[in-house]
Amino acid sequence: MMETIQRTIQFSEPTVGEAEYLAVQRAIQMKSLGGDGKFCRETEKLICEMFNVKHALLTTSCTHALELAMMTLELKPGDEVILPSFTFTSTANVIIRQGAVPVFVDIDPDTFNIDASKIEAAITPNTRVIMPVHYAGQGCDMDAIMDIAKRHNLYVVEDAAQGVGANWNGRALGTIGDIGCFSFHATKNISCGEGGAFLTNNTKLAHKAEIIREKGTNRAAFLRGEVDKYTWVSLGSSFVLTDMLAALLKVQLERTAELIGNRKAIWNTYYSGTAELEAKGLVKRPVFHQNATNNGHIFALLINNGRRDEIMSAMKKRGISCTFHYVPLHSSPFMVDYFNGNVANLPVTDYVSESLLRLPMFAHLSLLDVEYILTQLNEVFN
Ligand SMILES: Cc1ncc(COP(=O)(O)O)c(C=O)c1O
After folding, report:
1. Phi, psi of 82 (to 5 degrees)
2. Which ranges does the record mark as transmembrane (predicted)?
């Protein structure tokens, strides 16, 4: 007989409290609601210091930061961009919105990141950009990717939506390529609900991006006192973050050690608590490359023997919300139409997508709940 549900455990929840509330209240009290104001500037400065990057532009989302990157690099129809198919739709949407073409490359079976050894075979005379996605906050092989980009004269735009607070070879994810993009969505390690950042060490790209972000105007230069009036100087859009959310984000960034520390403790408990399942051949636990640090963003297991959906629904019946992802982009209805049915052959992506299960993860998930989740998980396998 199935035991009755003792607890309900959500998959993800933002960890926010009094300090975040007071920060938003302060922005409102100061009537600082627009974008690129005092709080945005302070938060951008903090991001530059924390992640050792020259320029940080806050945006309304990581999707918009990626879109801003594509606009800044003047991606044009016919240009090609190399990316994994095992990612969120945003990584590819921003390419197609410019009229450029996504070229999907398979992933590594251990890290679920783009397989750097397969990138060169995908390069053509039309390739302009490589977009590595740091899955679960684990850095892609950025040494190999930067080397390929240099030899073929390509830009690198890091989708570091999940990479906030993790490093590759001692450098913060999102600061290694020409441009990097963070997400501060409600599900992320550091969150302001909806938000993102565009990072670069290239001052020319930063100046171009700040104009596009502000509807094609040089308002940012005006606010710095560099011009005496601001005007329309290029094609642009509206990607600035409101000061209220920038104020909240600053508090979250200041809590980075605590928020990521908690996630890592949860991650480590899951890791040791699933060792036996792995020894029995029932699951495969996450594998980290020696150059990558872990920010505890996601704990994902591969469930062997085609049992993922069965295990996921058994956990749900016990009140525990576990989720899968991603439905691979290359075989999504939109991409099948786009490529007239010529679906790329990406066997590792297909296998990982069919087998992957994520366990609940958020910074205030108690270790008692983590132990409970592990007990339930071990039981459903028996
Ligand atoms: C890999 C990846 N890229 C981009 C995004 C988009 O981020 P946002 O929701 O901030 O637009 C996400 C969101 O989950 C993501 O996981």
Report:
1. -95, 130
2. none
